[in-house]
Design a protein that fits this description.
Layout (H helix, E strand, L loop, with lengths): L1 H17 L32 E4 L7 H8 L4 E4 L8 H12 L4 E4 L8 H14 L3 E6 L1 H15 L26 E5 L11 E6 L4 E6 L7 E4 L9 H20 L24 H23 L4 H21 L3 H11 L18 H6 L2 H8 L4 H10 L12 H15 L16 H8 L3 H4 L8 H10 L5
Parallel strand pairs: 1-8, 2-3, 2-4, 4-5, 5-8
Antiparallel strand pairs: 6-7
Length: 465
């Protein structure tokens, strides 16, 4: 791990030396970030979150919910693996008990693509459903959000709502049908957010749709559903929670985000760190520090798995309004450009870098880089994760957090950097190219970044220990 730290330190020193020292471009801590144009930054933030219901066995209430909604034709979305497992069976039992008419779509792809979204959208359009139920992880819930959106706006082109610059990023103004989300992983927090992520295969990058209008109507958080998760799925889902919390807490403050929207409908879902999101992010981080290792190592530890399920929702409330930044922005090409890597415990027939893994592998380098801005937040996060900061210097905050993360990942047998999942230095230009369109999140980094900065961050992430 010492070697990993020295590599990261060397690359970051190179960035420092290469950086312009003039006031307009210096990365000094006291500087207002470059993307905050004076007089054109936002002055407000808003919180949008799904209704949440939590409790062991609470899935049995879904049939009553749909009856209360007056639903006559329900779309139940899941994937092939889950369709045979207890979470879906619990939903099916409740639908049958209350006489709910439904059709099941179990063709959702793990790490969805534009084509798998389109297939689900076509099913939704033909079905003319008046309510949706999604049972699964982020892939299922996000697919269901997209299906609900485009079935409710049948004349829209697919790219109309996809985030700019890949799509047109139009605001959603059509009313959507009720959507009940039942998360079966403790990671994405998708049951709380208005974001749907997919792989755009033509460009080999991840992008998505972001609008408060597509967030689920209700999230049913039933900790019984996490008991069947295999070890590495628990780990990778938990790493997503970890980075959601860290990134939203260290994101550019909402008052520094630009431009200020001329109409509140144009205020983005990801607005920058704010006092309410901060509370949720920090609480989620404390739960991760206490329970993630236990949840991974002991599938019978119901307390740990139940708390991680809650942490996923808490972090979702935080980042769903504050946003994420570089770990997520850089993760999208890491997933999209995957070569031959197939993770343990994932029952898939194609190469796949799980989302949580793609996010966490760059986290030591990223937070060493961003800590020049608001280092006290980075130091606080390191302390929550177990670092002794009693004699720490504020200027070392980034390295302390990076070292803390490396130790955390090493203890959990995480792959030793991007090289361990099939990447080399030769891939860095393509990884940088795939990060550049992710402006929706990268612009929320507290420290602006150049292409050279991104190259150095990917290089520093090739090997962690």
């Amino acid at each position: 791990m010492a070697a990993g730290r020295e590599r990261a330190a060397r690359l970051l020193r190179q960035l420092q030396r290469a950086a312009c020292r003039c006031p307009s471009h210096s990365h000094a801590y006291s500087r207002v970030p470059e993307h905050a144009t004076l007089g054109n930054t936002d002055y407000a933030f808003e919180m949008a979150v799904s209704n949440i219901r939590y409790g062991e066995g609470v899935t049995k209430e879904i049939g009553m919910d749909l009856k209360n909604l007056g639903a006559k034709r329900v779309c139940l979305m899941t994937d092939k693996n889950l369709s045979q497992l207890p979470p879906v069976n619990a939903v099916l039992n409740s639908l049958a008990k209350y006489g709910i008419n439904f059709q099941m779509y179990d063709e959702v792809q793990v790490e969805p693509t534009d084509q798998s979204f389109l297939d689900a959208i076509e099913f939704a359009k033909k079905g003319e459903f008046d309510a949706y139920v999604a049972v699964g992880g982020g892939s299922v819930i996000d697919t269901c959000k997209a299906a609900n959106l485009y079935a409710s706006s049948p004349t829209s082109d697919f790219l109309d709502y996809v985030n700019a610059p890949i799509g047109k990023g139009k605001p959603v103004t059509v009313p959507l049908k009720p959507h009940i989300a039942v998360p079966t992983t403790a990671g994405t927090g998708s049951e709380t957010t208005g974001v749907a992520i997919f792989d755009f295969k033509e460009l080999k990058v991840k992008t998505g749709i972001a609008s408060r209008a597509i967030k689920p109507t209700l999230g049913i958080i039933d900790p019984l559903h996490t008991l069947s998760m295999p070890e590495r799925i628990v780990a990778n889902s938990g790493f997503d929670v970890l980075c959601h919390a860290l990134e939203s807490y260290t994101a550019l403050p909402y008052k520094m985000r630009s431009p200020c929207p001329s109409n509140p409908i144009n205020r983005p879902a990801y607005q920058g760190s704010n006092p309410i999101s901060d509370i949720w992010a920090l609480h989620a981080l404390r739960i991760v520090a206490k329970y993630l290792k236990r949840a991974i190592r002991n599938p019978e530890d119901r307390e740990a798995r139940a708390n991680m399920h809650l942490a996923s929702a808490f972090a979702g409330i935080g980042f769903g309004n504050a946003g994420v930044h570089l770990c997520h922005g850089m993760s999208y090409p890491i997933s999209g450009l995957v070569k031959t890597y197939k993770p343990k415990d994932y029952n898939v027939d194609h190469s796949l870098v799980p989302h949580g893994l793609s996010v966490v592998l760059t986290s030591p380098a990223v937070f060493a880089f961003t800590a020049q801005v608001h280092p006290e937040r980075h130091l606080e996060a390191a302390e929550i994760l177990g670092a002794d900061i009693r004699t720490a210097r504020i200027k070392d905050a980034g390295f302390i957090l990076a070292d803390t993360l490396r130790k955390f990942l090493f203890d959990l047998n995480v792959d030793d950097g991007l090289a361990a999942i099939g990447y080399s230095k030769a891939d860095i230009p393509a990884l940088v190219k795939g990060t550049l369109p992710q402006e929706r999140v990268t612009k929320l980094s507290p420290r602006p970044q150049t292409e050279e900065d991104l190259s150095a961050l990917f290089e520093a992430s090739m090997k962690l220990y």
